Amino acid sequence: MTTSEQQPPREEIDVEEIDVGESRVARWRFDQFRSLGFGDEQAWLLVSSDADLHDTRSLVAAGCPLDFALKIAV
User: Which residue among 7, 11, 43, 62 is buried most deeply as judged by most CB within 10 Å?
Assistant: First the structure.
């Protein structure tokens, strides 16, 4: 098989669509961190740092203070 037979041709990607999708994910993550009790500034810091939401949820659920959970997650 040749390389062109192994992989389908790439489609053009609409950059505006990616930005919208990424902003939707960022907003969803922001809302999730806010629901854990973090303030707006802390939630955006977590979103921008790509903190693991699942790990942060586990820390908070285990009783970890929010300030300490923030330091661990970021």
Answer: 43
Query: For residue 37, which of 23, 52, 62, 57 has the smallest C-alpha distance?
Result: 57
Structure tokens that stand for 52 in this block = 């693991």
Residues 6+ positions from 74 with CB-CB distance below 8 Å? 45, 46, 49, 51
Q: What is the pLDDT of residue 64?
A: 98
The verdict on residue 22 lying in a domain is no
Query: 56: which 2 tokens?
Result: 């942060």
Is there a domain that residue 57 lies in?
A: yes
CB atoms within 10 A of CB 70: 21
pLDDT, tens digit (0-9, with 9 covering 90-100), for 21-42:
679 999 999 999 999 999 999 9
